[in-house]
Specification:
With 128 residues, this protein is of the alpha+beta class. The chain contains 4 helices and 8 strands; from the N terminus they run ββββββαβαβαα.
Amino acid sequence: MGLRKTASLIIYRFRERGLEVFLTQQSDEWGFPGGEVRMDSDQDYIELEPSKDSEEAVAIEGDWHEIPSLKQMLYEESGDLKERLKEIEQGAFVSIKDALKQRLSAGQVEFLRELRDVVADRNSVRDI
């Protein structure tokens, strides 16, 4: 049984362009999927520091073929869940540099910068 917490879920992967993150379109802005996330001990999460606005986020490495199982980690009321799944279906992976150029909240920008630093430290990856 895993711990559940409400947080943004940042899905990341590595490609030729470097580090990419999965963004969803929410109204006129881009952001991260979120909701109640189950923190299983067998998943390799990166728990990011809460933002100045007390937003919380966790990051997990994933790709398109893993999106269906990542969707199952998000728990919300049935009405909201349908809308969240639509957002995920319309999302896209973008480079971290391009993600930072989008209209994101200050907290989301903090999460991306921390993720970039953590992943660089973990993997000694260049050109992120």
